[in-house]
Design goal:
The protein has 338 residues and is an alpha/beta fold. Helices cover 38% and strands 19% of the residues. The strands form two sheets. It has a seven-stranded mixed β-sheet with strand order 3-2-1-8-9-11-10, sandwiched between helices. The chain has a four-stranded mixed β-sheet with strand order 4-7-5-6. Strand 1, helix 7 and strand 2 (183-187) form a beta-alpha-beta unit. The protein binds 2-acetamido-2-deoxy-beta-D-glucopyranose (NAG) (2 copies). The site of one 2-acetamido-2-deoxy-beta-D-glucopyranose has 4 residues, from helix 6. This is Methyltransferase FkbM domain-containing protein. Residues 161-301 form the Methyltransferase FkbM domain. Keywords: Membrane, Transmembrane, Transmembrane helix. One of its GO terms (cellular component) is late endosome membrane.
Length: 338
């Protein structure tokens, strides 16, 4: 007769314990939910952070679809015969998507966008130049001669000149193109200068874009002033009201090289009013072969450039000091004793 009573007591206690445990779990759930709502709401941290996080997660998902990943320089590193290339070039490829998702430097969408929308082909070799001062063989202030001398007066080389201005005035590459049968790529973000550049009939590719300071395509606000146009990353309200502010599309230098199908470069001229080092830092040096560079250091200072280029395998073989800009000339260490 005692057993049923005892079991009844245990039964009641059991019910109480189960109810208590359930209450505790419900309480924990409510608290967690409240905490979650608080931390993910707009009151904690800026909206910009939230957008950045969202973009990052999209990027991670995109990267997850394609492998292997070479993330240091934001590369897809796909084999050229990979069947996914065509799909990636076509699938939802727009300028907005490319920028918002910070597509890889070698993403087919980025390369195709450059080719289709920005790349102007070289003028035919038999089309005469249209120059302001056709008798001035070398409009550079010593850069062309120094580089050519280092390269043993090489003919038929390939250059890329960033900050190409109007394609003639202070051009570091016109001499090579006109008299040494070189070809190359001219990049100029200032639209007025670029119009003039196209009219010169240069025998090189030309692009009206800026160079990205990040290893992915970006858009920036650009201040338009002849010869000293430069990228403005943050603007005061007064500045953004100025009428000479334009929004421009920028591409990583490596994406531009892939778009013209050339990663072996004899001379890279970089003069972009202060962003030289950041642009150099986007370059996947293991993917390109750049023999010589002329880099303006006025805004950056010599030392940071030399400190960065040294471990990449470059030494300074010369300097140019003139009133329109100071250049450092770099060459590959392994070309030192030729
Ligand atoms: C290259 O040509 C220039 C002018 O024609 C000449 O002064 C210079 O010595 C040459 N340099 C080399 C390395 O051949
Ligand atoms: C290249 O040469 C520079 C200057 O002599 C040196 O500082 C740097 O360590 C060298 N880099 C490599 C990768 O050998």
């Amino acid at each position: 007769m005692r057993f049923p009573i005892v079991s009844q007591i245990y039964y009641r206690q059991g019910t109480l314990i189960v109810t208590a445990i359930a209450l505790v779990f419900a309480f924990i759930f409510v608290i967690q939910h409240m905490t979650y709502t608080q931390t993910s709401g707009p009151s904690s941290g800026s909206i910009r952070d939230a957008v950045d996080q969202a973009l990052e997660s999209i990027n991670i998902r995109l990267r997850g679809r394609v492998s292997p990943i070479s993330s240091e320089y934001n590369l897809l590193d796909l084999d050229e015969t990979d069947p996914r290339l065509a799909e990636l070039a076509a699938e939802k490829c727009t300028i907005d998507w490319m920028n918002a998702d910070r597509l890889q430097q070698d993403h087919p969408c980025v390369i195709e966008t450059i080719r289709r929308r920005y790349l102007h082909p070289p003028a035919d070799l038999d089309v005469p130049y249209n120059l302001v001062a056709p008798n001035k063989a070398d409009p550079s202030v010593g850069q062309a001669a120094s580089i050519l001398n280092y390269l043993g007066n090489q003919t038929k080389g390939f250059f890329i000149e960033c900050g190409a201005l109007d394609g003639e005035h202070l051009s570091n590459t016109l001499y090579m193109e006109r008299t040494m049968q070189w070809g190359g790529v001219l990049v100029e973000a200032d639209q007025t200068s670029f119009g003039k550049l196209l009219s010169r009939r240069r025998k090189s590719y030309a692009l009206p874009v800026c160079l990205s300071l990040q290893p992915y395509p970006t858009q920036v606000t650009f201040k338009v002033t002849y010869a000293i146009g430069s990228v403005q990353e943050s603007l005061t309200p007064e500045q953004s009201k100025e009428s000479n502010m334009l929004t421009l599309q920028c591409f990583p230098i490596y994406s531009i090289l892939l778009a013209v199908g050339r990663t072996q470069i004899d001379f890279f001229s970089l003069d972009v009013e202060g962003h030289e080092l950041r642009i150099l830092k986007t370059i996947p040096w293991h993917k390109v072969d750049i023999k010589t560079l002329a880099v303006e250091w006025d805004h950056v200072g010599e030392k940071p450039l030399i400190d960065y280029m040294g471990p990449k395998g470059y030494y300074v073989f010369g300097r140019n000091t003139v009133n329109v800009g100071n250049d450092l000339f770099f060459a590959k260490n392994d070309s030192r004793h030729r």
